[in-house]
């Protein structure tokens, strides 16, 4: 708390600390690991509510996979904007990116996600 200068919102300061620590951890591990589960053997005998839960989990896994295909900076900006619901200005303060760069990363990331999801959907139909 001694280092907080009060020049920006406290939440932005906390996010910046979190971001720096996350980047340190990522550099140490050098990759993200997502777990995937195979539920195919359970689908034939499972009751409908379990199937719904499995479908939701499968969708969640698909989204995680698609997000893992983004660069870490793109994934971070997407997460801060959509999951944390931060403004462009708050994201620029956390990431030290320019406002234009944040907007470009969001636009390109959405475009990549659409493309990857459509490819994945096409592959499942085939």
- Please name the CATH architecture of the domain at 10-31 and 69-125: Orthogonal Bundle
Q: What is the residue-mean pLDDT, rounded to a whole number?
A: 75
Task: Determine the strand fraction and express it as a percent band.
Answer: under 5%
DSSP, total strands: 0
Percent helix, as a range, is: over 70%
Work out the radius of gyration: 18 Å
Low-confidence stretches: 30-43
Give the CATH topology of the domain at 10-31 and 69-125. Arc Repressor Mutant, subunit A
Query: How many individual helices?
Result: 6
Q: Give the class from helix and strand content and strand pairing.
A: mainly alpha
| CATH class bucket of the domain at 10-31 and 69-125 | Mainly Alpha
Protein name: Protein containing RNA polymerase sigma-70 domain
GO biological process, one term: DNA-templated transcription initiation
InterPro entries: RNA_pol_sigma-70-like (IPR039425), RNA_pol_sigma-70_dom (IPR014284), RNA_pol_sigma70_r4_t2 (IPR013249), RNA_pol_sigma_r3/r4-like (IPR013324), WH-like_DNA-bd_sf (IPR036388)
GO molecular function, one term: sigma factor activity
């Amino acid at each position: 708390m001694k280092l907080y200068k009060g020049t920006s919102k406290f939440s932005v300061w906390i996010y910046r600390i979190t971001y720096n620590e996350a980047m340190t951890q990522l550099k140490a591990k050098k990759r993200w690991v997502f777990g995937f589960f195979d539920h195919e053997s359970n689908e034939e005998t499972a009751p409908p509510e379990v199937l719904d839960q499995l479908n939701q989990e499968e969708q969640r896994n698909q989204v995680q996979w698609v997000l893992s295909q983004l660069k870490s900076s793109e994934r971070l900006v997407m997460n801060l904007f959509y999951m944390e619901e931060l403004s462009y200005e708050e994201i620029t303060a956390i990431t030290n990116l320019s406002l234009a760069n944040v907007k470009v990363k969001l636009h390109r990331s959405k475009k990549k996600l659409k493309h990857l999801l459509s490819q994945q959907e096409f592959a499942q139909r085939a």
